[in-house]
Every structure is written in structure tokens, then in C-alpha cells.
Amino acid sequence: MEFFLDTAELDEIVKYKDFLDGVTTNPxxxxxxxxxxxxxxxxxxxxxxxGPVSVExxxxxxxxxxxxxxxxxxxxxxxCVKLPCTLDGLRACKTLSVKGIPTNLTLCFSSAQALLAAKxxxxxxxxxxxxxxxxxxxxxxxxxxxxxxxxVQGCExxxxxxxxxxxxxxxxxxxxxxxxxxxxxxxxKQCFQHHLxxxxxxxxxxxxxxxx
Length: 212
Ligand code: G3P
Prior knowledge:
CATH topology: TIM Barrel
Number of helices: 11
CATH superfamily: Aldolase class I
CATH class: Alpha Beta
Strand content: 15-25%
Structural class: alpha/beta
Bound molecules: SN-glycerol-3-phosphate
Shape: globular
Order of helices and strands: EHEHHEHEHEHEHHEHEHH
């Protein structure tokens, strides 16, 4: 499974780059940086990470999304244009896909949206697990359903489990066969941290001092 970091913070990306297959950003994570610095920040991230770096359009209309998507994709070869699962976003996905530009269809909350994303040639589709859970639904179930549908239908679009809030989201999305998962730095940290590892190391360090 591909591991993506869901952040626009370069220091975090550099810290974890050995684990990372890609990065996802969104207008909320980018808003922590000045708009005039967005292009150079994306360029820097794309230098550190050779895999896909998702950058979301802020335009809402089809024509503007296509223009913005083309502009964003020119920042670096590994930029993946993130578009919302709306009518305009899906249409822009189709146009950009035909031009060979990689896309990530975001804000996906249903299997029907995921199917349309696949029909429009999306490279990735991002079901939002955490936000579904917050609204009384089961995020993992949606990821599982999309994976199964894509398998049965032979869709090439990859399922990118997003809006990850805990370690279980990572494990469960791996179990149900998501191609990729994107998580914030604090969850990636939980992937390698374990209190028994810490405790074990402390005991080994103490024991190694005995008989000195
Ligand atoms: O990048 C999109 C997604 O992962 C955002 O997650 O936690 O804001 O629902 P969240």
C-alpha cells in the first residue's frame, strides 16, 4: 500500500520522506502558507518526494478548473491535480485525464461518486473516512465497497483512503485493499511508535549498563 503524508509542511515531509510514496495537500493545509509562496512550496515538496503530490484546485467552474489544473500540473512532473467530486470536478477530471494529467478526485463520500471518478479517468479517488465517521456513517465500509466495485468492474483508478483520524483507519484500509492511504504526520508517527518498543529499549539500555 502506498503511504502518503497529508500535509503541506515541508519539514514534516523531509522528516518522514523514507516512508513516503507521495503527499496530499488541500486548501486548508495550504492556507497556512502565503498564496504567493504556494508554487515554490509545491516545487520544493516535489523535489523531496518523487511520487505523486496532490494539489487541489480552488476554482469551482469546469473551465476555470481545467485552466487551474493545467497551470498546477506545470509546477512539476509529479503533481497530481486534486478535483472535487462535483459535476464540474468530474468533467474537469475527464478533460485533464485525456491530456495525460494525473488526477485525484477528492471529497468522495459515496461509491457512485467513485464510479464516476473512474469513468472520467481519475488516477486516484479519495474516500473521506473520518468525515463519514463524524457523520454517523462507516468510512472503512465505503473504502471496502469502492475497492470491491473497482475490482469487479476492472477499474484502473486507485483507491486512496483519506481523512484518516486514527491508526485503525490505516490498518483497516490496508486490510480491505486500498491502494493508498494519506495520513497527517501525527498518525504516521503512531505507525512506528509503540510503548512496548520504548519500554523494551529502556530496559535494554539499563541492562547494558550492568556489569560495566
Ligand atoms: O486531504 C484530505 C483529507 O485527508 C482531509 O482530512 O481530517 O480534514 O477530514 P480531514
